[in-house]
Amino acid sequence: MKANQIQSIVLVLRIVTGMLLLLHGIAKLTGGIDGIQALFVSKGIPGFLAYTVHIGEIVAPLLLIVGFRTKLAALLIAFTMLVAIVVAHWSDIFSLSEHGGWAIELQAFYLMNAVVLIVTGGGKYALSTKNKWD
């Protein structure tokens, strides 16, 4: 595979991951965060920390899309997904959905894409390419 092809793949991965996760963040922004707050409180986590989901599902995806501090944005997304898995989906880790897929496949998808972007960085088709977090 040629270097330009790899760079194009990284670009597509950044944009697809960012756009799809951004839609989840917008839904939480417009639909309210009460459910996440209640879940956090039920797990002994301060409810105000539920608002950090906006960082992981709105700010970080926007950074991915434009390619600014990609590794940092991907790290924020990975952390957000780990928290989501532990807090909201722990009992689903070894379960299948009603359609036969892994019950946490969506969270795992975002987590693994974020891990790949932590390793690769944003690539040459990014807004910023010179910082250690790019």
Write up what this structure looks like:
With 134 residues, the protein is mainly alpha-helical. It has one domain. Helix content is 65%, strand content 0%. Helix 1 crosses helix 5, helix 3 (53-66) runs antiparallel to helix 4 (70-88) and helix 4 (70-88) packs antiparallel against helix 5. The radius of gyration is 16 Å and the shape is globular. The protein starts with a helix and ends in a 14-residue tail after the last helix.
Rg, please? 16 Å
Number of domains: 1
> SSE string, helix = H, strand = E?
HHHHH
Low-confidence stretches: none
Major β-sheet annotation: none
How many β strands by DSSP? 0
> Helix count, per DSSP?
5
Distance from first to last alpha carbon: 22 Å
Proportion of strand residues: under 5%
Overall mean pLDDT: 95
Looking at the structure, what is the overall shape? globular
* SSE class: mainly alpha
Helix content: 55-70%
Provide a short characterization of the protein structure.
By secondary structure, the chain is mostly helical. It has five helices and no strands. The protein has one domain (3-120).
SSE blueprint:
Elements: H1 3-31, H2 34-42, H3 53-66, H4 70-88, H5 105-120
List keywords for this structure.
globular; 134 residues; mainly alpha
